[in-house]
Amino acid sequence: xxxxxxxxxxxxxxxxxLNGLKRxxxxxxxxxxxxxxxxxxxxxxxxxxxxxxxxxLVQANPVSGKLGIGHTRWATHGEPSARNAHPHxxxxxxxxxxxxxxxxxxxxxxxxxxxxxxPFTSDTDTECIVHLIEGFLSxxxxxxxxxxxxxxxxxxxxxxxxxxxxxPDKIVAARIGNAGGVVVGLGQGENYVxxxxxxxxxxxxxxxxxxxxQMAVVxxxxxxxxxxxxxxxxxxxxxxxxxxxxxxxxxYRHFMQKEIHEQVRSLTDTLAGRVDFDNGRITLAQLNVDAxxxxxxxxxxxxxxxxxxxxxxxxKVLIEDIARIPVEVDIASEFRYRDPIVDEDTVVxxxxxxxxxxxxxxxMEEGRRKGATLWSIVNxxxxxxxxxxxxxxxxxxxxxxxxxxxxAFTAPLVDLYMLAVYLADLRGVxxxxxxxxxxxxxxxxxxxxxxxxxxxxxxLQVAREMKYIRNALYLGRGINMPIAYEGALKLKEISYIxxxxxxxxxxxxxxxxLVDRDMPVIALxxxxxxxxxxxxxxEQAKARGGAVVAVATEGDERVAGLxxxxxxxxETPWRLSPVVSVIPLQLFAYHIASLKGLDVDxxxxxxxxxxxx
Length: 613
Ligand code: M6R
What we know:
The structure is a single chain. This protein is 36% helix and 22% strand. With 613 residues, it is α/β, with parallel strands linked by helices. It folds into three domains: 3-244, 4-Layer Sandwich (Glutamine Phosphoribosylpyrophosphate, subunit 1, domain 1); 261-443, Rossmann fold (3-Layer(aba) Sandwich), CATH 3.40.50; 450-595, Rossmann fold, CATH 3.40.50. The strands form five sheets. Strands 3-2-4-1-10-9-11-15 form an eight-stranded antiparallel beta sheet, covered by helices on one side. It has a seven-stranded antiparallel beta sheet with strand order 5-6-7-8-12-13-14, covered by helices on one side. Helix 7 packs antiparallel against helix 15, helix 9 packs antiparallel against helix 17 and helix 16 packs across helix 20. The longest helix has 21 residues, at 407-427. It starts with a strand and ends in an 18-residue tail after the last helix. The chain binds 5-amino-5-deoxy-1-O-phosphono-D-mannitol. 5-amino-5-deoxy-1-O-phosphono-D-mannitol binds next to helix 9.
């Protein structure tokens, strides 16, 4: 989705903006642009395509100044083209805007402005905003008041950043709803604005997050925050500890491969400070739950999208098994519209890497409206899903750049396991011995994931043999059933190979008709309570001529004798086995896409942070 960077200070804004936009490439985009105040007038450079094109434009026609804003656009209204790329300038050339989100009433506004004689030069909804601001520019209060009044005319959710050559001492930024974040970075005699932390992290770690319905007036020396009603808001500065180097590729070809390998560390960090191995106890302090609250819970709705929702399905098995609380997993885009039966004894638990996924945030709001307790498991610190929640678990994975989520999938699996044990403990449904045993199993996780990663050469070999497949069927049962879905999603989103997943028991109800030599079956056949069922499924696929690739527990002779290829993983306590069984499937998808020479980190049509509905 769209990314924003802005700068005001004593340096040349152009390279700062280009560099910041580069750091946001992972969000996905199809055009890019920047606007800089040069000698008192606004200069815009923008084009469809990748940032290299924008850099070339700037090189051919340089622009420099001490104030500027930039944008990477993911098209919603109007094709990716130079005229639709942001920034958008008004007709007087005195105001320029970049915008994330969708102006839901843009047709109405466009008609109104056109009737007033305003000429439109793009197909975007965003252009309405700049014309509105320009129309109000002469009112008392100048740019700030003009932005405030304009934003009040917009329906929908927005992140907006604006500057004007009439008031060259400031950038005005605003956030309405959940169309991605707006963060202000604090420097010395200079300040930054961005949609996401990584864009400006190399310059500052001191950041202010705007809440919905807030505006920031950012000058070189100062940042003032106020509500859209003009009420001043106390500026709360957050220190971000992320290491900017960890956002680089290092020795790996792609961020995705790097992030797959980072899982040993991210899972070690996931446990740190939360697990007391000596006493066999879990503490999740930021969840803000005590024994009384925990005992009141009648039901948990896990709501999320994509990969995060598959993590939630594993969480359902764990929470129901360990804490004995009924759990329903709901795709956020469905939950938000289906009037779910939720009350104050319900917890709505959102899972989100970005913490800015529009559907997930809307599902949280639906939960809030109905009086539920809101929890979230989130990676992006300070994101909306973290701030909306009554309590949260922070994923501890660091920034995830590859669009295909990997380390931000395994971390919540462990978070959900810890949550299940923690709730069971608070509710008094497990005794000390069982709790102690469950906690000790966590100790094994990082090393087991490391062992699974050591098998990368074998997975690569199978990927080489299978890179021309056109379809694949992923099967799993029980706690590894969601891993079949996750494996299929990984393959399809980065290699563009059609992949379907099924609970293996459903095969006989239809999908088995698809099985032949051209439909490889990827079967999760771990030594878990569903093992025997999976073996019989593999036998049925083989009987129909299917080529079977199994994910199996090291040393399993039965699977070795049945399957055509095996991805071996180390023996793991079954409740934690998804953390390990997903590793070869991540590697398999990665290597197929990489062997095909595809854009692994930024697959077509996808964005890292899906901030529109
Ligand atoms: O940021 P979120 O975790 O809320 O994102 C949810 C999905 O958009 C995301 O998991 C998506 O499915 C990924 N492309 C999966 O790799």
